[in-house]
Every structure is written in C-alpha cells, then in structure tokens.
Design a protein that fits this description.
Layout (H helix, E strand, L loop, with lengths): L4 H31 L2 E2 L1 H6 L7 E2 L9 E3 L2 E2 L4 H6 L9 E3 L4 H6 E5 L5 E5 L5 H4 L2 H13 L1
Parallel strand pairs: 1-2
Antiparallel strand pairs: 3-4, 3-5, 6-7
Length: 143
C-alpha cells in the first residue's frame, strides 16, 4: 500500500532529525576527542607544546575533564550519547594548572617559580574546528 504524502513527509522529517542528531553528537565528540588527544611526553619536555593536543605528564590534566558532573578522561562519551538537539553540555578541565596549559603563562607563580610557557590551546584550537567536524559528519550521512 502506498504511503500518503503526509506520511512520506513525516518519514523524511524523522530521518532528517535522526541525521542531525547523529551529526551533532559525533561532531561534539570529535571536538572532545581531539582536545583529549595526548601530546607525547618527549615533546612536552623538549620544547613548546604541540598546538591542539593536551600535554600529558602525570595524567592529572587529562583526567580532570568534567562533563555535566561526570569526571574522567572519557566522561564525555556517555553524556554525548544522551544529547538531544538543543541541549547544552558544559565541559571543563578542572586541574589547577588547566588554564595555564591552555593559554600559556609568562611570569612568576605564587610559589616564586618563573615561567615562560606557551599555551597548548588544546580546547580552543579544537573548538574552532567544530564546523570542520560538522561538515565531515554531514558528508558521511550523505553517502
């Protein structure tokens, strides 16, 4: 039996919403996975940080990721799986030195140590790639 125009249109709308939800979830996950991509220890100790990668020396920073109350290196996985279109998800790296690693720091800290540290921009560099991730995921859906 042939579908009515209304039923066909409703089916297309449901499919489009499903595709949009998939693209949104995968793109947000791409940003967080990229931000959580570790920079090798050798690079950390040998020079400036690799832009867009999280420096991992003791794992304190990478494990400090908090997503809507859940904490841990992969805390985002379950939270993203439950996201719906229009939801807002808050994430943060809560280690004391997270901002210094992200933005860099030049000067003397509260313990009198001198720093001239370039920022790794592991959050900002990857958040700026969100549109790239969306385009990539949308192209996958078109196939």
């Amino acid at each position: 039996m042939a579908k009515t125009f209304t039923a066909s249109l409703a089916g297309l709308c449901d499919q489009a919403k499903g595709n949009m939800r998939h693209i949104m979830r995968e793109s947000v996950q791409d940003v967080l996975e990229a931000a959580q991509t570790p920079q090798p220890k050798a690079a950390i100790r040998g020079g400036p940080p690799e832009q867009g990668k999280i420096p991992v020396d003791t794992s304190e920073l990478i494990n400090s990721l908090t997503v809507d109350g859940a904490q841990g290196a992969d805390a985002y996985v379950v939270k993203i799986a439950g996201m719906e279109l229009g939801d807002v998800m808050e994430f943060a790296w809560t280690a004391d030195h997270a901002a210094r690693i992200e933005y860099g720091f030049v000067g003397t800290d509260s313990l009198g140590r001198e720093y001239e540290q370039e920022g790794a921009h592991f959050v900002g560099a990857n958040a700026a790639r969100f549109s790239e991730f969306v385009e990539k995921r949308a192209a996958e859906v078109k196939k």
